[in-house]
Design goal:
Blueprint: H1 3-6, H2 15-23, H3 31-65, H4 77-112, H5 130-137, H6 140-172, H7 179-219, H8 224-235, H9 238-259, E1 265-268, E2 273-278, E3 288-294, H10 296-307, E4 311-314, H11 316-325, H12 337-352
Helix pairs in contact: 3-4, 3-7, 6-7
Amino acid sequence: MSEETAQERTEAPTPKRLEDARKKGQVPRSRDLNTTVSLLAGGFGCLMLGPGLLADINTMLGSGLSFERGIVFDADAPQRLFYAAITAAAMALAPLLALLFVCAVLAPLSLGGWSASADAITPKLERIDPLKGLQRIFSANGLMELAKALLKFLLVGSVAALCLWQLSDFLLALGMGPLQQSVSELGTRFAFCFLAISSAMVVIALVDVPFQLWSHTKKLRMTRQEIKDEMKESEGRPEVKGHVRRLQQEAAQQRMMQDVPTADVVITNPTHFAVALRYVDGEMNAPVVVAKGKDLVAARIREIAGENNITLFSAPPLARALYAGTEIGEEIPAELFLAVAHVLAYVFRLRTARPGDRKVTPPDPDLIHPGPDYD
């Protein structure tokens, strides 16, 4: 594989790459989705709130164009009337504006989620670079924007022409009806036409949203070397990982050494291996390994066992079998039950022996041999 091929951005972005891009404000966004949602919300808002809004406008016009004779001689009256008209207009438009505001906020969040970053608004010289501008114009994104603009023109123009053709008879006969009824019906027809034209934008949004997701992922694609470098950075350098591993092993050994005094017996090699076992009748199904080690660790286990009067039992084959086939904190395997049982029986007899009793003899070596599988 050549170096050029190896450096191609063919790999999907990692979660860390996506998170870093989000921190910089690089998230997928679709202006057509935002526009479509806002237009549809405005159309539905006009249908739902239109009658009440028209009634409020009628009231404002009536109160603003008719007033008592005494107001003409009041110098402060125009200011009061102006403030009253502004307040009434704000109260009438507040529900529609609130609906548009909520949709304008939720539409971007539905695609790329919330993202606040100072990097996104930081001035960059490359944004005013003519060469960069030409590259953006003739890029895949620029061609997509051109195609969407043409598609918008065709769709919106076609739907608008169809709506006007459907309303042609109504518009010609509009002046023949009562004023209030004609205005109300005109507002309803206008809201339906606006909603129909806005619905044409749904097609644009359905095309733009997948394209923006694909374009965002393409911009963040990585080379294989970048993925390797990120993994090294995330996991740390080998020497650092080795140091951490050593610290973890030292901590584990320290905890293990603290459990040695709780053992009932330490089975040794006698010098190379040492395995400390603990068994509580009625509480455990089988003896449990509380500590094990070899060489220096085994010597330290034997030393702690001697300081705490724990029996040291030399059984090289059994010690090697326990060391190789068990883990700290686990029960011994079933095939070693019988051999360990003879050792523990000997240890418990030693504990309960009195000075005048007959000497306790250790078990026969054949009884404590782990078997041919461990030879």
